[in-house]
Specification:
There is one protein chain. This protein is of the alpha/beta class. The chain folds into 2 domains: about 140 residues, Rossmann fold, CATH 3.40.50; about 80 residues, SIR2/SIRT2 'Small Domain' (2-Layer Sandwich). A 6-stranded parallel β-sheet has the order 3-2-1-7-8-9, with helices on both faces. Strands 5-4-6 form a 3-stranded antiparallel β-sheet, covered by helices on one side. Helix 5 runs parallel beside helix 9 and helix 7 packs parallel to helix 8. The longest helix is centred in the N-terminal third of the chain and has 16 residues. The protein is globular and about 55 Å long. The relative contact order is 0.19. Bound molecules: ligand BV8. The site of ligand BV8 has 37 residues, from loops.
């Protein structure tokens, strides 16, 4: 453990799969049922906001029944027990890392339980259904609210902080992601440039699996607690 001074962890939909939240590209994944261009792009939202609100309202309701799993809890334990800095960067828009107690956390693709006004940029916590008629809690405008989510073609949040952390880390762990969405899929390259040790924990090899120095495969609720336990021993 004391060989790693700074750890960056990236998670994707696979870490929440065993909490009952769907992934995107697995069998029955979200992108097998919806066309991402229609529900996860600014153009799709402009063309049919009702369809996009329906897509996110269903996921927001789904989130109410989801609980953190052993993988989320192990990552929270790691942050609490590990002396050095552990930064958790998630592509996920669910709030299961927070519910598990993780605090040093960046939601690079935004958050399902938040909405943003396109008029005044105010971000509000929101766990109900959203519609075109929902007024902004700050400027009272209607027809301007959208999910506080990063869509394809938009710039992910906190990229400078993420690249800074990657340039300084000496351990990078990628968990539960297919490695098919940029810029998250390029984080392992940044970690390699920093001479960090790179680890992939996933159900099966991702698109970027050959870039990782160490790889463990299996369900996150098994391989993540095992890996964290080993980290806490050394
Ligand atoms: C940007 C919010 C510029 C929506 C999301 C052509 C080529 C390459 C790139 C591009 C291209 N054309 C356009 C691009 C860029 C584009 C992109 O990458 N497109 C892809 C489709 C090719 N990217 C963007 O537009 C991004 N913006 O590039 O801006 C920029 C760049 C750098 C710096 C500044 C500016 C914005 C992308 C954000 C899009 N929004 N989410 C929503 O959630 O509704 S992305 C979406 O995919 C989700 O966030 C998801 O998290 C993410 C990645 O998917 P995964 O999490 O990996 O999920 P997936 O289903 O794919 O995989 C699950 C994995 O889990 C699998 O490997 C599976 O084996 C594993 N698993 C399953 N069960 C388990 C498990 N593992 C363990 N245990 C289990 N039980």
């Amino acid at each position: 453990m004391n060989q790693y001074r700074r750890i960056v962890i990236l998670t994707g939909a696979g870490v929440s799969a065993e909490s009952g939240l769907g992934t995107f590209r697995d069998k029955n994944g979200l992108w097998t049922k919806y066309d991402l261009r229609e529900v996860a792009t600014p153009e799709g939202f402009a063309a049919n906001p009702h369809k996009v609100h329906e897509f996110y309202n269903a996921r927001r309701q789904n989130l109410k029944n989801a609980k953190p799993n052993a993988a989320h809890l192990a990552l929270s334990r790691l942050e609490k027990k590990h002396r050095s800095e552990v930064l958790l960067v998630t592509q996920n828009v669910d709030n299961l890392h927070e519910q598990a107690g993780s605090g040093n956390l960046i939601h690079m693709h935004g958050e399902l339980a938040k909405i943003r006004c396109q008029q005044c940029d105010h971000v509000s916590e929101w766990t109900n259904d959203l519609s075109v008629g929902t007024p902004c809690l700050a400027c009272a405008e209607t027809g301007t609210m959208r999910p506080h989510i990063v869509w394809f073609g938009e710039t992910p949040f906190d990229m400078n902080a993420i690249y800074e952390a990657l340039s300084l880390c000496n351990l990078f762990v990628s968990i539960g992601t297919s490695g098919s969405v940029y810029p998250a899929s390029g984080f392992v390259d940044e970690a390699l440039r920093a001479d960090a040790h790179t680890v992939e924990l996933n159900l099966e090899p991702s698109e970027g699996q050959s870039l990782f120095a160490e790889r463990h495969y299996g369900p996150a609720t098994k391989i993540v607690p095992d890996y964290v336990a080993r980290l806490l021993e050394i």
